[in-house]
Amino acid sequence: MLKLLRVIHSINPEVGGPPEGILQISPLLSSYGIETTVACLDEPDSEWLINKPYNVISLGKGFLNYGFQFGLVSKLTSLAKNYDLVIIHGLWQYHSLATFLALKRIEKKYFLFTHGMLDPWFKKKYPLKHIKKLIYWNIFERNVVKGAEAIFFTSTQEEYLSKNWFKNIKINKKFINYGINRKPENPEKFKKVFLKRFPYLNNKKIILFLSRIDYKKGIDILIEAFGKISHDHPDLVLVVAGPSSRDYQLKLKLNSLINIFRIKDKVIFTGMLKNEMKWGAYYSSDIFCLPSHSENFGIVVAEALSCGCLLGISDKVNIYQEIKNANAGIILKDTTDDVIKALDKMLNLSNDDKAEMKKNALTLFDKKFNLLNTANIFVNILKEYI
Predict the structure, then answer these.
(1) Which of 37, 58, 249, 329 is the most buried (most CB within 10 A)?
(2) pTM > 0.85: yes or no
(3) pLDDT tens digits for 305-364?
(4) Pair 5, 85: CB distance under 8 Å
(5) Which CATH number fits domain 2-179+371-383: 2.170.120.30, 3.40.50.1820, 3.90.550.10, 3.40.50.2000?
(6) Which residues, at least 6 apart from 190, have a Cβ–Cβ distance to it below 8 Å?
């Protein structure tokens, strides 16, 4: 049995894609003879550490969001000795630097998932943070990148957007699509569960946003676009499904938009949905819309494809080109005007055009984002380094 150690800042599902990706693929890796252990900087009593299909080692939260803690390098040094291969997930936090320093001590190979954290959107949105990142990059993080046996990208678009960071650094690039297990069958069952929880949505046309409530996801432009078209569509509602934003300014802006357009009764915030409720939301929706300003991969997009949803995503979602080429959804710019145009287009598609696009979504999922295919690619790459 090959022993794989994955080091990540947190496996809290509210973080988004990386924890979900690890959760989905670990049981399949086990069938290939790869045993997964995840070391994270979560507190030992965190509820999301329970009942995982992999071994969990909690190393404690550390200092602030960066996660610094005295002795972490030594802990990781002792831990890593027991594993054949190591993967670091993510940048800009202490777990990546500490793992690099630990593995350097024992001369052990490692790989790095950047998870879209080198996207230039962050430079534009947070210029002061970008200056701090440049300093940190030149002192520490570039060494983490240089030392990796390979850098794992989840799409060619992610690699393209991050290329400016790799000037004068020779890296070995590997591409591993995220994948998900095919969604549960029996859509009517899950729709019934979802609509029983939210009976107001019965007989409504539903636009679904399912993701973290964050500026990066374009939730504000979606609510504004919805507000501008909703009064022309009396039965249209917007369902916002995701963990509540911790950004007070964003909350104020969303509430302001809802009040300006008088759509309080037409925008439903469900909180984070899991399991049957999540699949019920996909199956109940008429449109799935994600107008992100930056999106490394979008596991929710793969989930929506697997359910045959009518899809509208921005061209800042790094797998948009695959969806565009397959005619499996509508691609839009991350602006209010373009979201309005896309929603109008999807609402006015003929039944035949809708059916074709939904069929294409299912076909694309099976071809590109089914976890069985992803796991096979992943395993073959890992075996190159054993």
Answers:
(1) 329
(2) yes
(3) 999 999 999 999 999 999 999 999 999 999 999 999 999 999 999 999 999 999 999 999
(4) yes
(5) 3.40.50.2000
(6) 184, 276, 279, 280, 283
